Amino acid sequence: MTDKRAAFEEMNRRHQVSRAYFFSQKEFRRQFNIHLPIGLCAGLVQVWWAELRKGNDAIRRLEEATPQLVGEVLLSQARSVYLKEFPPHNRELRTHEAELLEFKYGEHGVAPINSLCTLFGVDNCLELDLGLLHDSPIIKRWRFSHLASDIVDALTEGPSPGLYVLLARYWDSKRASGERGHRSALVIEAGGSCRFYDPQWGEMSFLALDQFTGWFTEYWTTQLWDYYLQRGSPPSSPVQLFAFGGTFPPAAMEKSLALRERFSNPDPRELILWLDGLRPRPAGEHGRGGDLTPQQVGRG
Q: What is the CATH number of the domain that holds 283?
């Protein structure tokens, strides 16, 4: 057991964690022989939520994933890649940008994508992807700087059962893109219990929301999120929290179902090649992911 794992378990013992199931993104990648230059937190969160909705033990399903489920993680990660500059400023879409939009939405061009955002009631492509991937409308959104207390206040002011997705993004000079992002999720059950999934660690369950918020405040500090986020962030807010609930209107549901059918048989090998194409490469070398550079795409 590593020192970090031991410290995490000690933190859990100080709080009322009803169940801790450790299975990290690093273990997932090692177990299923996935070697990629990017994280998989977006794909893991989406599949974790999808399995919960089916009534499954989601974290165990990830640990015992079939090739099909691994493919779904990779597909969701690929569908989470988005253009940072959209619509483009004073220029046309470049070929590789149009190809990414075509891959994700079945259409390209500024006007059609803006129409999709309007259809799903969102402000940008990041929010469009969140709604499509989690198969539910965004009903509330918050933006914060770095304080755990802000996140806790948002969750405890009239909490509603459902899914909450937490995005964090900050500058990191060690990354080719100059930035780093992470995604985690909280599900509040109708009876008040909740479970939190951080792909860096696994799933933590609590019998009540106040037990989670007490734990989360220490988690946020010990994982150094408040420190990293005070470095500043790319154009988006350092912390974004989204609440999901309800169903899409009929026209949006029809589009969502069409896209789901379009992606119904993912090929893990092809997706690995495509995602690998997003890594920085020497001049003149191209990957299967096209010519998208780390500076042009986001994966939070």
A: 3.90.70.20
